[in-house]
């Protein structure tokens, strides 16, 4: 039996920016009365204390593993240390190597302060520009930033100890930075050192500018070997060291079934992966893997974006719960990541538009819910803010229903061309597209050397090391995935030529349905929502339903579009949802083994067997994205690619577990009478 693990308590998600003054043009933290870097020579200080004391130049030069080298830091500050590590990596590492940076920050800089601080280092200007362009809002959680094709940064906003207790990944080198222990004693605690040890790889090194006794004693108690060496500038001494044998990670003691499967050591150059399904879930996963150098076979019955992801326009839309919960925190993280990802993938906005999303309140009940949401989440205004009727009308750019009580406005959200996006993702170098229906997948390898055979409806066979299934409601037709609790939801979108563009919305307007601004003279709106309905023919009554929803939100515009359904076109697709409406993303559990290993839960939910969850070697899932797949799929693709490629996760441990495809198996066991 095991002890329970305490999860973080829900709290407001917005963090306070760093409060600075600028003595001698260098940032000084008012809250801690301390500097962020040496005024003598901050770059040389970083090189001495963190880069050279962790032996990064020689370690980078000798790095030939397929996984990235991981550097973690306890205080991002101005970003100087991370940018210098990136520069060192590019100067010394082989062209096949990859770098993953992880840094935590409780009080992030504003973009303006970041620009001002980093302007002192012209040699880092190009790297600083890439960082600042993607700098996230001060919202707690993990923010993934792709700095370069081979360099990824995860900034964890929050308390250092809490962030590293929730880090789902392992570290090769530590920058133990932050304000001096005398200035910031709340950070330099035994809990922090213990959390560092748990997520360290064997042989992981650390370096820190301080030589304080409490730091040395704490690191030694956590399992690190420490030594004093010459400090920088006026600091006579500093600490560096390593950890030979990190402690066993017991953070999943209460949920052992979520223990990740062992990493598969590829037997081929890049490690080949087959992705079945070329909708937004499969195409974004294929792209994420190919970006990491994997050789990807992408399969689809028709073409990329031909199924549920084939609409002309789709909304980047989330409807978060009034009170923060794991599902809402996941979707909030996904919305922020996806807009950054789209801006980087398509900076010209040919495939998407960040025109904004307006979620209307058409009743007093919804208006109350939205007010509760705003107070509970306390998010920055450029993520979401409330608007009154006048503000909603101004952002929509057209007349709203007389029932409008206001709304929520997401300035950075908007709409996407799903089919075109899937096609562009599938064209990534390293992806080979195969048209055909995969009817069977068969495990023909071993746990140590997995191998899968795929067979399509034409009798062709393909072999691969790993498989990602992203075929929505059709995924549980494969025997290994028959347990997946998938629900089909039919949706019909209506499309009609716009007679008067002056009445069209200027942002995406959502209520019971969604209405984006027209594209190329055609207005899309909808969609219907019919659970357990798999029929794909167009239905006139669904046009009626879509038009009725449009009239509820934009009555004048609906009247202008008319009711001559002969002029309407339709596209019907099937959404796929899970019972709890969160996606199912991660390794595929061996259902029979889970039901056997954790059978005692049916009699007592506290009887937790200390057995890691058994998974099919090399089989992965990304399904049940529902109507919000354009938001959720890109971040889920990063999660899968990170797990497959042995990288830190782009979500906290808690949220990665929340998405696990086996969670329903455990729920059903506990509910068994």
Describe the structure.
The chain is α/β, with parallel strands linked by helices. It has three domains: 20-243, Rossmann fold; 256-308 and 420-484 and 581-671, FAD/NAD(P)-binding domain (3-Layer(bba) Sandwich), CATH 3.50.50.60; 357-411 and 487-577, D-Amino Acid Oxidase, subunit A, domain 2 (D-Amino Acid Oxidase, Chain A, domain 2, 2-Layer Sandwich), CATH 3.30.9. An eight-stranded mixed β-sheet has the order 6-7-5-4-8-9-11-10, sandwiched between helices. α4 packs antiparallel against α5, α7 (190-198) runs parallel beside α8 and α9 packs parallel to α13 (418-426). The chain is globular, with a radius of gyration of 26 Å. The protein starts with 19 loop residues before the first strand and ends with a helix. Residues 1-10 have low confidence and may be disordered.
Secondary-structure blueprint of this entry?
Blueprint: E1 20-23, E2 26-29, E3 34-35, H1 42-52, H2 56-61, E4 69-73, H3 80-92, E5 99-105, H4 111-118, H5 125-133, E6 141-148, E7 151-157, H6 160-165, E8 171-175, H7 190-198, E9 200-208, H8 213-222, E10 225-230, E11 237-243, E12 272-276, H9 280-291, E13 295-300, E14 314-315, H10 326-345, E15 352-353, E16 357-360, H11 364-377, E17 385-387, H12 389-396, E18 407-410, E19 415-416, H13 418-426, E20 431-435, E21 438-443, E22 452-456, E23 461-464, E24 466-469, E25 487-497, E26 508-510, E27 514-515, E28 522-525, E29 530-531, H14 540-553, H15 555-561, E30 569-577, E31 584-589, H16 591-597, E32 615-623, H17 629-644, H18 653-658, H19 663-671
Parallel strand pairs: 4-5, 4-8, 5-7, 8-9, 12-13, 12-24, 13-20, 16-26, 24-32
Antiparallel strand pairs: 1-2, 2-3, 6-7, 9-11, 10-11, 14-19, 15-19, 16-18, 17-18, 21-22, 22-23, 25-28, 25-29, 25-30, 26-27, 31-32
Helix pairs in contact: 1-3, 4-5, 7-8, 9-13, 9-17, 10-17, 14-15
């Amino acid at each position: 039996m095991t002890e329970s693990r305490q999860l973080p308590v829900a709290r407001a998600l917005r963090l306070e920016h760093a409060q600075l003054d600028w003595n001698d043009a260098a940032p000084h933290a008012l809250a801690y009365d301390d500097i962020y870097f040496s005024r003598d020579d901050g770059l040389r200080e970083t090189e001495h204390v963190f880069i050279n004391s962790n032996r990064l130049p020689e370690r980078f030069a000798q790095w030939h593993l397929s996984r990235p080298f991981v550097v973690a830091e306890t205080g991002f500050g101005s970003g100087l240390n991370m940018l210098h590590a990136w520069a060192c990596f590019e100067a010394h590492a082989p062209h096949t190597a990859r770098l993953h940076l992880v840094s935590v920050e409780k009080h992030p800089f504003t973009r303006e302060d970041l620009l001002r601080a980093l302007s002192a280092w012209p040699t880092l200007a190009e790297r600083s520009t890439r960082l600042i362009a993607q700098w996230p809002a001060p919202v707690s959680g993990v923010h993934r930033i792709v700095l370069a094709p081979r360099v990824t940064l995860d900034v964890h906003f929050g308390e250092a100890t809490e962030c590293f207790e929730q880090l789902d990944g392992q570290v090769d080198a530590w920058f133990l930075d932050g304000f001096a222990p005398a200035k910031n004693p709340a950070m330099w605690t035994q809990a922090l050192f213990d959390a560092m040890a748990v997520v360290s790889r064997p042989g992981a090194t650390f370096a820190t500018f301080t030589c304080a006794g409490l730091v040395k004693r704490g690191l030694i108690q956590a399992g690190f070997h420490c030594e004093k060496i010459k400090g920088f500038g006026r600091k006579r001494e500093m600490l560096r060291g390593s950890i030979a044998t990190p402690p066993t990670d017991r953070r999943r003691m209460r949920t052992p079934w979520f223990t990740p499967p062992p990493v598969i050591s590829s037997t081929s150059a890049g490690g080949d992966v087959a992705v079945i399904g070329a909708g937004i879930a499969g195409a974004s996963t294929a792209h994420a893997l190919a970006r990491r150098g994997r050789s990807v076979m992408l399969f689809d019955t028709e073409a990329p974006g031909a199924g549920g992801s084939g609409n002309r326009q789709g909304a980047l839309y989330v409807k978060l719960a009034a009170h923060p919960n794991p599902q809402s925190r996941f979707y909030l993280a996904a919305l922020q990541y996806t807009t950054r990802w789209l801006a980087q993938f398509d900076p010209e906005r040919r495939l998407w538009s960040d025109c904004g999303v307006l979620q209307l309140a058409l009743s007093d009940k919804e208006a109350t819910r939205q007010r509760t949401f705003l107070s509970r989440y306390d998010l920055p205004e450029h993520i979401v803010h409330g608007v009154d009727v006048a503000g909603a009308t101004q952002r929509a750019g057209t007349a709203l229903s007389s029932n409008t009580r206001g709304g929520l406005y997401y300035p950075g959200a908007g709409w996407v061309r799903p089919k075109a996006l899937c096609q562009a993702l599938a064209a990534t170098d390293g992806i080979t597209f195969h048209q055909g229906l995969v009817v069977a997948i068969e495990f023909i390898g071993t746990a140590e050397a997995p191998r899968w055979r795929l067979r399509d409806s034409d009798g062709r066979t393909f072999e691969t090391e790993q498989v990602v299934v992203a075929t929505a409601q059709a995924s549980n037709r494969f025997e290994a995935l028959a347990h997946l609790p998938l629900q089909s939801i039919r949706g019909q979108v209506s499309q009609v030529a716009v007679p008067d563009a002056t009445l069209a919305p200027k942002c995406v307007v959502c209520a019971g349905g969604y209405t984006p601004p027209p594209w190329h003279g055609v207005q899309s709106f909808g969609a219907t929502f019919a659970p357990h309905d798999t029929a794909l023919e167009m239905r006139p009554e669904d046009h009626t339903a879509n038009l009725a929803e449009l009239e509820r939100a934009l009555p004048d515009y609906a009247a202008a579009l008319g009711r001559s359904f002969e002029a309407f076109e339709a596209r019907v697709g099937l959404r796929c949802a899970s019972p709890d409406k969160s996606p199912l993303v991660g390794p595929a559990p061996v259902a029979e083994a889970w039901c056997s290993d954790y059978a005692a839960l049916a009699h007592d939910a506290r009887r937790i067997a200390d057995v890691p969850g058994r998974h099919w070697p090399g089989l992965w899932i990304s399904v049940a994205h529902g109507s919000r797949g354009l938001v959720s799929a890109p971040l889920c693709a990063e999660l899968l690619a990170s797990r497959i490629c042995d990288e830190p996760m782009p979500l906290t441990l808690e949220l990665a577990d929340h998405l696990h495809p086996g969670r329903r198996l455990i729920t059903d066991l506990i509910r068994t009478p």
